[in-house]
Amino acid sequence: MSQGRETAIDIALGRIAALRWGESGMPRVLALHGWLDNAASFVPLAPHLPGIDLVAIDLPGHGHSAHLPPGADYSFALAMHNVLDVADALGWERFALLGHSMGAGIASLLAAACPQRIARLLAIEALGALPESVENTVPRLRDAVAATRALGGKRLRTFADLEPAIRARVNGNVVQVGEDAARLLVERGVRKVETGGWEWSSDPRLTLPTMVRMTEEQVRALIAGIECPTRVIYADPPQPYLPEPRRSEHAALLPRGEMIVLSGSHHLHMEHPAEVAAAIGDFFHAAP
Predict the structure, then answer these.
(1) Catalytic option among 41, 65, 101, 202
(2) Any catalytic annotation for residue 101?
(3) Residue 136 lies in a domain
(4) Is a pLDDT exceeding 70 seen at residue 146?
(5) Which of 53, 121, 273, 275 is within CB 3.0–4.6 Å of 45 for a Cys-Cys bond?
(6) How far apart are CA 38 and CA 190, in angstroms?
(7) Per the structure, how many domains does the chain have?
(8) Does the pTM of the predicted model rise above 0.85?
């Protein structure tokens, strides 16, 4: 399994860490991982996608990348600008996006917002954004502000060695992941502590509730506004927060889209990379 070439990309926020496969001159693909994951999310899949210049970044606050400054909020809107800053630093005017989960949500917004820059979109286990009911707008906002004020200088959990961290990642509260995939994510998602042991390198603010979410109507309008060719890959069974028939209804809104369902878990691109790569096929090599 090719681990990729370690790469550093400097943007206005700070240094963004990345893994890179392929060479310049090949189709350009920028990969965005899921919430509390990192660029290692694409290590199993990348060797099955030859012939592309694939750059998988640690999104801000994740992995080895810089954290946002004090007072900043990890919103999708800010993430879009960070991704565009990375593309600018790479010298990429037009490129494709490969996103998983949260990364697929960010990629969806970017594809809708900047059709002149995004040539293709491959979304795994997400499309658009998670909707919120109008009635829950104020309660969500109040909870998020209260949680943010209460966070203070909280540090994330520390571990004497990596095995407890890997077990914690396997048994995650939101989605579970296999041990091999968890090990890849943990090894890139921790840092040594001076007093001994390891701690998560991710920004504690990433665990805070999202302050504002789009309504279902806004999410549908967003998806319908994605003009580039789009392929969505979902796992079966579906995640409870994106059930059927909603996810199929969302995919059907894509002007130039298709949806593929494969047996597997939320991290199917890590646990079944050959099958996911087969579903991707020559998608990144086809003409726009």
Answers:
(1) 101
(2) yes
(3) no
(4) yes
(5) 273
(6) 11
(7) 1
(8) yes
